[in-house]
Design a protein that fits this description.
The protein has a single domain, classed as Arc Repressor Mutant, subunit A (Orthogonal Bundle). The chain is about 55% helix and about 15% strand. It has 8 helices and 4 strands. Strands 1-3-2-4 form a 4-stranded mixed beta sheet. Helix 2 packs parallel to helix 3, helix 3 packs across helix 5 and helix 7 packs across helix 8. Bound molecules: zinc ion.
Length: about 180
């Protein structure tokens, strides 16, 4: 089965489910729970069964196929909860979008995350798009900060706290939608 949804459509679809189950105020998202639950509902034959921190020198995270399903690993030496959440969401994006293209999985280094806006690797861009849309849905972001409002770093910091993402991720999200 091939998934034709775009990264943002996938994120919207999951946001819609979370809104229905948890209400609109469901932030920050527990990516590990959501990834396991959604994948086991949608793909009971091929779910995400493990999300775990590990020593991954040089890598932020990866998606791996195991015997009973898929695993998401993230670099446990990363100290920021926000970056870990983002990594988990990014890998969840790879699962939804790219696991057929990469049946053994794939790993992602730091560059893949930094080069958010370049098309240097299309799949990394797509995984980032998914992660940003899942963690920080535009509808909610706009409700918190109206587009016309002048923002300062404190307000962006408030958004970073709300979504449990890094300040940089919250800032990029703001820049991208204004
Ligand atoms: Zn990646």
């Amino acid at each position: 089965m091939t998934d034709k949804l775009t990264p943002s459509k996938w994120a919207f679809k999951i946001t819609h489910i979370l809104n229905a189950v948890l209400g609109e105020n469901h932030f920050p998202i527990n990516v590990a729970d959501v990834a396991k639950e959604i994948s086991s509902q949608l793909y009971p034959q091929d779910p995400i069964v493990l999300i775990q921190g590990d020593s991954l020198p040089g890598f932020e995270g990866g998606l791996f196929r195991g015997e009973k399903g898929w695993g998401i690993l993230y670099n446990k030496d990363i100290r920021s909860t926000g970056r870990i959440n983002y990594t988990q969401a990014h890998e969840f994006g790879h699962y939804l979008l790219h696991r057929e293209q990469f049946p053994e999985g794939l790993s992602c280094n730091e560059q893949d995350f930094i080069r958010w806006e370049s098309d240097y690797r299309q799949i990394e861009f797509q995984a980032n798009q998914f992660a940003a849309n899942l963690l920080m849905p535009l509808d909610d972001y706009r409700r918190q900060i109206a587009p016309a409002l002048k923002v300062d770093l404190d307000m962006i910091g408030g958004m970073a706290d709300r979504y449990e993402v890094s300040l940089m991720a919250a800032l990029l999200r703001w820049i991208n939608y204004t």
